[in-house]
Amino acid sequence: MQTELTTRTGNQGGQELVFESRYATSPNEVKGMNTDQLRQNFLIGKLFVADQFQWVLSFFDRYLTGGIMPIEGPVTLTTPDQLKAAYFLERRELGIINVGRSGQVVVDGERIDLDYKEALYIGQGTRDVQFISHEAATPAKFYLNSTPATRNYPTRKVSRTDAEVVELGSMETANHRVINKLLVNSVLPTCQLQMGMTELKTGSVWNTMPAHTHDRRMEVYFYFEVPDNQAVCHFMGQPQETRHIWMQNEQAVISPNWSIHAGAGTSNYTFIWGMAGENLDYSDMDFCAITDLK
């Protein structure tokens, strides 16, 4: 069972990129998938290659997940042929979180410094975006999420101090964590894209418990700060028909709207969640009791 649509490596506008499209899948299809098929459909294994955009387009809400690690000077955001657009953000918005060393994003000529774990929102209609690392030996790593958009909202940087911060869980349940709401409607306006970052406290390993689904939104999880020789087990599927995917540092996973999305690591870690769909209500969740998971 293979739902991958296309994978293309090419040069567009002088810029190397890899662009992959993946079909949306139903719960019935996922029930019959083996380990390799689950990984082919939902795991995004490589996001940071020197001076080369890595893009995966999911047909769930046409969500784009990508990454760029600039080394040899500025790298310009080019428009993959598959978007059928005059420029990348003609009908899209873009969220960026830097998970590497310090860098800079140039937005229609405006230079914006972006340090580790700082976020940047760029609105629909922006024509020129460039990515720069301050030091080639210690490059920035810009994690990118993009969704369709219908109107322009202003470009805005969101630092750690600008975020809406919520502390949840406890050591007793191994899920003591800090949620940093960065690109969400309680912080700034967006069309549908929302992004944030959850940091697990030392000694805690579980995220997003109790598990939940939300038919109105899909998500992508990006796991990082996973220590060497450690891993995270990401759980997905319907609450009574769960599956799992083992993940390494700096990998992402697509979470359909009908699926739970939770993880447990062999160490504490950090993950970035991105969402898109019908509403911007962060609390719109259909919870499943932990004892009802199967």
Automatic annotation (TrEMBL):
Q: What is its EC number?
A: 5.3.1.17
Which Gene3D superfamilies does the record associate with it?
Jelly Rolls (2.60.120.10), pectin degrading enzyme 5-keto 4- deoxyuronate isomerase, domain 1 (2.60.120.520)
Q: Which SUPFAM superfamilies match?
A: RmlC-like cupins (SSF51182)
Is the keyword Zinc assigned to this protein?
yes
**UniProt key word RNA-binding:** no
The protein's annotated pathway: Glycan metabolism; pectin degradation; 2-dehydro-3-deoxy-D-gluconate from pectin: step 4/5
Q: Which GO terms describe its molecular function?
A: 4-deoxy-L-threo-5-hexosulose-uronate ketol-isomerase activity; zinc ion binding
Catalytic reaction list: 5-dehydro-4-deoxy-D-glucuronate = 3-deoxy-D-glycero-2,5-hexodiulosonate
Annotated Zn(2+) binding sites:
212, 214, 219, 261
InterPro entries in alphabetical order: KduI (IPR007045), KduI/IolB_isomerase (IPR021120), KduI_N (IPR027449), RmlC-like_jellyroll (IPR014710), RmlC_Cupin_sf (IPR011051)
Which key words tag this protein in UniProt? Isomerase, Metal-binding, Zinc
Cofactor requirements of the protein: Zn(2+)
Provide the cofactor note recorded for this chain's UniProt entry: Binds 1 zinc ion per subunit.
Gene Ontology BP annotations: D-galacturonate catabolic process; D-glucuronate catabolic process; pectin catabolic process
Q: Which family does it belong to?
A: Belongs to the KduI family.
Q: What does this protein do?
A: Catalyzes the isomerization of 5-dehydro-4-deoxy-D-glucuronate to 3-deoxy-D-glycero-2,5-hexodiulosonate.
* UniProt protein name: 4-deoxy-L-threo-5-hexosulose-uronate ketol-isomerase
- Species whose genome carries this gene: Spirosoma agri
* Native organism taxonomy: Bacteria, Pseudomonadati, Bacteroidota, Cytophagia, Cytophagales
In the UniProt record, the gene name given for this protein reads: kduI
